[in-house]
Design goal:
Blueprint (H helix, E strand, L loop, with lengths): L1 H12 L9 E3 L7 H7 L4 E6 L7 H7 L7 E4 L5 H4 L9 H12 L3 E9 L5 H4 L5 H18 L6 E6 L12 H6 L3 H12 L4 E6 L6 H16 L6 E4 L2 E3 L6 H12 L4 E10 L7 H20 L3 E6 L9 H4 L17 H7 L6 E3 L4
Length: 358
């Protein structure tokens, strides 16, 4: 376990980049991932959650710990098929339950998602559209959903996964009807619906695929060039053990976007094992990969926080989507903290001093 202790120490020692702003974090037994990120100058450490988790008392005890998690993303209940299953008929029951729980516990809500090619109701995915009629449907959906949650969401993922791996636009009903114009359209409608919410473009493999990151840069410039508000880019960070870029590489990629004047965040972080069962070496490598991701956010001033896509393997999406892989989360199915959790959390074991900006 010497390597694990090394990872714990390395997480914050590498964050020292100057002497302008010194922060002291003391060993306080009640601290958790969120409170420590806040102490480091970040806004939050969060997790995905949804109503399927409400009856699990062990899960709730951890997720409602304000030191552990300060931000929640509804995993599925705010997606189009859930909120508008039939045209003009809106349903917010499930998402409202998440929002109410988060509010009652004094935590933040990160809302997800509005314009996405997947999990669409059939009236959208199989409809026959013109530019005018699809524009009206997008406008009505975004306006109704965002107005319902106005002033409740720190941020919205306005457009989700619009890119292929080579950086070109992904085929969708939106692209085939409106071309790339559907992207600035979505952001424009969102800005009008809730001017206070941060508006994000969100996608996967931006961390690992340079051509796709190029495409995301082009999307930011497309929206900005249209004179429309875009506040951030979400890096989903669905990573693979042993294939995660280095901390410096990840920070450099984040920096490409903050240089455009937008903030960044890791929005769906998990690190899956490509095969099971795992060895001790596999688990230590997973710890190193989590440290690289969280550490890179600490290293970039414009990175506001990290959200994991569930904190326990009990509710991970990975095994159902990629059979034979898994154990991607910070805790086991039985809520035992893994080496990955301990490596990320471990900076609290002693007093540390580091710089969080230039």
């Amino acid at each position: 376990m010497e390597r694990l202790s090394y990872l714990r120490a390395r997480l914050f020692r590498e964050a020292v980049v100057g002497d302008e702003t010194l922060i002291i974090v003391e060993d306080k037994g009640g601290e958790g991932l969120h409170s420590l990120m806040v102490a480091a100058g970040k806004l939050y450490f969060g997790t995905a959650m949804d109503t399927k988790n409400f009856n699990d008392t062990a899960y709730q005890a951890i997720s409602t710990n304000q030191n552990e998690f300060g931000m929640f993303t509804p995993e599925n209940s705010q997606k189009w098929d859930a909120t508008e299953p039939q045209q003009g008929q809106f349903s917010f029951t499930q998402a409202d339950a998440v929002a109410m729980k988060v509010k009652s516990n004094g935590q933040l809500l990160r809302c997800h998602t509005l314009t996405w090619h997947s999990q669409l109701p059939s009236f959208v995915s199989t409809g026959t559209w013109t530019r005018e009629t699809l524009t009206a449907v997008i406008t009505a959906h975004i306006t109704n959903v965002m107005t319902h949650y106005a002033a409740q969401c720190y941020a919205w993922d306005v457009v989700n996964e619009a890119l292929n791996e080579n950086g070109t636009f992904r085929s969708s009903v939106f692209l085939s009807t409106l071309g790339p114009d559907y992207i600035p359209l979505s952001f424009s409608v969102a800005a009008a619906a809730d001017p206070r919410a941060k508006l994000y473009y969100n996608d996967f493999n931006l961390e690992t695929t340079p051509a796709k990151a190029d495409g995301a840069v082009a999307i930011v410039k497309l929206v900005q060039g249209a004179g429309v508000k875009i506040d951030g880019v979400g890096f989903q960070a669905h990573l693979n053990v042993g294939q995660t870029p280095s901390r410096a590489q990840l920070a450099a990629t984040l920096g490409r976007f903050t240089a455009l004047g937008v903030e960044v965040a890791y929005t769906e972080l998990d690190v899956k094992h490509p095969k099971l069962p795992t060895s001790e070496a596999d688990r230590e490598q997973q710890a190193a990969d989590y440290v690289a991701a969280v550490g890179s956010c600490l290293d970039v001033e414009g990175c506001v926080g990290v959200t994991v896509w569930q904190f326990t393997d009990r509710y991970s999406w990975v095994p159902g989507t990629f059979p034979g892989t898994g154990e991607a989360c910070l805790m086991t199915e039985d809520y035992v903290k893994k080496p990955a959790y301990e490596a990320v959390e471990g900076w609290r074991e002693q007093q540390h001093r580091w710089t969080v900006g230039n």
